[in-house]
Amino acid sequence: MPNYQLFLDNPNTYNNIKNCIGKVFNDIGKTINLDQMNFEYQPMGHDTPKFNNGNMYIYSFWFDGENVPLKIGKAGSKSKARYTSQHYNKNSTKSCLAKSIAADTAFCNKHNINTDTDALKKWIHANCHRLNIIMPYDPSSGYDMFTLELIEAILHNIYQPKYEG
After folding, report:
1. Would you tell me how many other CB atoms lie within 10 Å of the CB of residue 140?
2. d(CA 59, CA 71)
3. Is the pTM higher than 0.90?
4. Which of 93, 129, 137, 154 could form an SS bridge with 77, CB 3.0 to 4.6 Å?
5. Please, are residues 46 and 132 in contact by the beta-carbon 8 Å criterion?
6. For residue 160, what are the contacts with CB-CB under 8 A and spacing of at least 6?
7. For residues 32 and 22, is the Cβ–Cβ distance under 8 A?
């Protein structure tokens, strides 16, 4: 099984992601300053990420027991709960990582996961790496909601996460 810390906590990975995003934006004739894109790696055992209302975020959860990320998502500049807490609580919203894991009986049995709400939240924090891409919300420089959605779609196509929807 992969060790995602070596992959996720790596400037080469960030540059490869930026290059893929830059190529797509170039191909569609849209200008974007990739230097305004910052990467934050949070290893297994991570804390709740910090949220700034002036930013937009792409986040992803990775588990060493799988060959793909578990989840890739986006949060706009006013989506603090989506970015910081909803994915850890299976009862928080219709679509979240915890709910997807709890519904996947085979995955839970294979990895001995207790689907009780508090236990599942602790499992995600303890066992998942998190990679966040932080960008300013600045429509004048090309960083708007359309940009955020396109970047999320690019990463979905590259990494094909286990859980979506």
Report:
1. 6
2. 8
3. yes
4. 137
5. no
6. 68
7. yes
**Distance (Å, whole) CA 27 – CA 43:** 34
Asked if 19 and 101 touch (Cβ cutoff 8 Å), the reply is no
Dihedral Cα 4, 34, 74, 130, nearest 10 deg = 20
| Identity of the amino acid at 55 | N
* Distance from C-alpha of 112 to C-alpha of 109, rounded to nearest angstrom: 5
- Tally the C-alpha atoms within 13 A of residue 77's C-alpha that lie toward its C-beta: 13
CA distance 39 to 46: 15
The predicted-structure confidence for 89-110, as pLDDT tens digits, reads as follows 998 888 899 999 999 999 999 9
- Hey, what's the torsion of the CAs at 132, 86, 113, 124, to 10 degrees? 30
Question: Which residues, at least 6 apart from 66, have a Cβ–Cβ distance to it below 8 Å?
Answer: 1, 162
